[in-house]
Amino acid sequence: MSGTAYLQPDTLEELQALLPSLPEKTAVLAGGTDLMPKLRARHPDYSCILSLWKIPQLRAVEEQEGWLKIGAMVTHAAAARDPRICRWFRGLSMACSHVGSQQIRNKGTLGGSLVNASPAGDIAPCVVLYHGEVELLGAGGTRRLTMDQFLSSDGRIDLKPGEILTAIWLPIDEALDSCFVKLGSRREVTIAQISLCAAWHTEDGTRTQIRAVAGAIDRRPCPFPNPQLLADQTQAEEAAQGLAQKIQEIRLQRTRPPKLKLTPAEQLYKERAAKGVVYDLLDAMEAANH
Ligand SMILES: Cc1cc2nc3c(=O)[nH]c(=O)nc-3n(C[C@H](O)[C@H](O)[C@H](O)COP(=O)(O)OP(=O)(O)OC[C@H]3O[C@@H](n4cnc5c(N)ncnc54)[C@H](O)[C@@H]3O)c2cc1C
């Protein structure tokens, strides 16, 4: 670690004052669950580590003019138990309560998850589902982006060098219900093979205005095809076929081979598994209405 500067501002104001003079090779440290292994492997590459751990404003969850502002340093564990997230954004609290293990949830942050931008990450699909926005702080000030602006189709994010993701903004809709399910290779500490989240209103006992997003099937979260088919269990087969077809289209359009060497059967796994996860989603939607 010698020769590497370690900066740990105590407030947002101190952080902002540091930003203009950060060395080019600065690593921003949040919970460290993704970064620490990289630091260990490539440590001499970083001349500075900027820890966000002590800044209280980044851990706050607050309601502001019809939006819930969730600080970037809110951990998965804190988000999973926050009463306002549970009430208005149940799908997000469900996603947070299934991230990794308890240790990962205690350290890993929502901001770190969005900046890490793993296609299999559980948080970005939820933020897309709720039409959320991200707040970024740079030397020149603050900007706010929709998730469409923040995430590019090739999986990159619009975060300039020296910029910090400070908050996630979610519009509050008291009448919206939502849920999240994921299919992984294990029951616990599993990375999503497919994740699905859905949000809807209920009118006269019927789900309406349904929207849904699939994660882990492409480089960025994808809209679920024909989400109106999720109104009840009767169209489950058709909904699952639509998702399987979408996954197939993405696989066939892929120009680069997947990083993992997959057998032909493994390459078809997600298409075949789509049915199970759609049924899980419909069960979760049903349970949410009771
Ligand atoms: C065993 C294990 C299991 C996991 N399981 C899951 C899972 O089930 N679901 C899931 O979604 N993820 C999972 N993850 C991934 C990981 O936990 C999340 O991506 C996590 O939330 C990252 O947050 P962090 O605070 O630890 O980020 P860090 O590791 O500190 O940072 C990650 C990256 O983001 C940058 N960064 C972090 N915060 C900011 C910020 N506010 N502004 C600018 N840059 C920033 C860092 O510089 C780094 O490049 C798992 C990881 C592990 C190790």
> Which cofactors or ions or other ligands sit in this model?
flavin-adenine dinucleotide
- Give a short account of the largest sheet: 5 strands, antiparallel
Strand content: 15-25%
Structural class: alpha+beta
Helix content range: 25-40%
Mean pLDDT: 92
Termini Cα gap = 54 Å
Q: How many strand units? A: 12
Low-confidence stretches: none
Describe this structure in words.
The structure is a single chain. This protein has twelve helices and twelve strands. The chain is an alpha+beta fold. The protein is globular. It is 35% helix and 25% strand. Helix 10 crosses helix 12 (269-288). A five-stranded antiparallel beta sheet has the order 4-5-8-6-7. The mean pLDDT is 92. The structure holds flavin-adenine dinucleotide (FAD). The site of flavin-adenine dinucleotide has 29 residues, from strand 2, helix 6, helix 7 and strand 8.
